[in-house]
Design brief:
Strand content: 15-25%
Number of helices: 10
CATH class of one domain: Alpha Beta
Largest sheet: 6 strands, parallel
Low-confidence stretches: 304-318
Number of strands: 15
Radius of gyration: 20 Å
Shape: globular
Structural class: alpha/beta
Helix content: 25-40%
CATH architecture of one domain: 2-Layer Sandwich
Length: about 375
């Protein structure tokens, strides 16, 4: 197969990926899918996509589609992924993988049975800040990692009706994933996985939000053990009734140099250098976009080149320029040129950390073992 024939499911956030697939030399975007027919037809016409489906089940019957990229609401991720794998399609899916342990187990089992690629499209582990920290670690600059911390804080008031009252840790992959990914080397078959988690809830959201999921906490904070490592990671997540600018962040405390994500949007990350006089220890750094890892045709989507033709789709200010990296890595995996990262097993672990963390919080901070697939 010289090109992967892709369909995009969900055209809100999902529409941002359309021009990236269209410009990638190893992809052919053949279809889009959305329930709203008017919006579907408008999008297909705007981007010149040849096929438009209002019914997901009908799309899966199309033999000219090799892969689906799912960007639908969170409750649909598990069921739509399961259907796609059963239909023999490669799957890229936005986070989280699913919302229940049962759906996650079925996805991992199906992926092994059908032999198709599954990749959770986790933005943080392809953001420029993460790639910078990972590169420093791989080159030995950081030294020995001693502690990891992730944080994802966002005010979700006014979002679609499945969001109000959602347990914070059910949508925790943005802060969990970099803590595990930085210790991984998928090209060598080494993937760090969480073994168990302890989580505490703090504060209380409005009563009308509590009733939907039975989760009272404004903030959930978890620590989890990493298999085969002496490093512990801590993650914090909030969704409602917490005053904080949107922030996805990742900090690495290491023996020689530590990396600290920017506190406020528009700032630059900080490196802390061991052994210098106290005032000289921290310094802000400008991180590169790592566009050189991508085919020439999609490098502009990292935000490095402000081409007015694609300005509304550049992700330089959002998700750290991760979208073209995600698309490229999914395509290379589905075409058999490299391992998917995160693959089904890894995606399951990253998602289960959050599901099990919320269980722990509801049990007053009991340690919960994370199912291993």
């Amino acid at each position: 197969m010289s090109k992967l024939r892709v369909a995009i499911i969900g055209l809100g956030f999902g529409a941002e990926f359309i021009p990236i697939y269209q410009d990638h030399p190893d992809a052919e975007l053949v279809a889009v899918c959305r329930r709203n027919k008017a919006g579907l037809e408008r999008c297909a016409k705007q981007f010149g996509v040849p096929k438009a489906y209002a019914c997901y089940d009908e799309l899966l019957k199309d033999p000219d589609i090799d892969a689906v990229h799912i960007n639908s609401p969170i409750p649909d991720h598990g069921p739509q992924t399961i259907k796609a794998l059963k239909a023999g399609k490669h799957v890229a899916c936005t986070v989280p993988m699913a919302t229940t342990k049962e759906e996650i187990a079925e996805i991992v089992k199906l992926q092994r049975q059908v032999g198709k690629t599954y990749m959770m499209m986790e933005t943080v582990v392809y953001s420029r800040e993460y790639l910078f920290a990972k590169d420093l670690y791989d080159r030995g600059t950081l030294g020995r990692i001693q502690f990891l911390r992730g944080s994802h804080q966002q005010d979700m008031d006014g979002w679609p009706d499945y969001w109000p009252g959602l347990p914070p840790m059910w949508y925790a992959t943005h802060c969990v994933s970099p803590c595990l990914a930085v210790l991984s080397d998928p090209a060598k078959g080494k993937v760090a996985l969480a073994e168990s988690v302890v989580c505490h809830g703090s504060g209380r959201i409005r009563e009308e939000l509590v009733s939907k999921y039975g989760s009272p906490f404004a903030i959930e904070t978890a620590t989890f053990k990493i298999g085969g490592s002496d490093v512990v990671a801590e993650v914090t997540r909030s969704l409602f009734d917490t005053a904080r600018q949107y922030r996805e962040s990742f900090d690495v405390t290491a023996s020689n140099v530590s990396f600290e994500w920017q506190q406020v949007e528009g700032e630059e990350p900080v490196l802390h250098m061991r052994g210098l006089p106290e005032p000289q220890i921290p310094r802000r750094v400008r991180v590169p976009d790592f566009a050189g890892r991508l085919p020439d045709a999609i490098r502009k989507y990292t935000g490095a080149i402000h081409d007015a033709t694609h300005l509304s789709f550049l992700q330089g200010a959002g998700h750290g320029g991760s979208h073209p990296h995600l698309v490229h890595n999914f395509l290379m995996a589905a075409l058999g040129r490299q391992p998917a990262f995160p693959d089904a097993r890894t995606s399951a672990n990253w998602t289960l950390v959050g599901i099990c963390a919320h269980e722990s919080a509801m049990k007053g901070g009991e340690r919960v073992a994370i199912p291993q697939h």
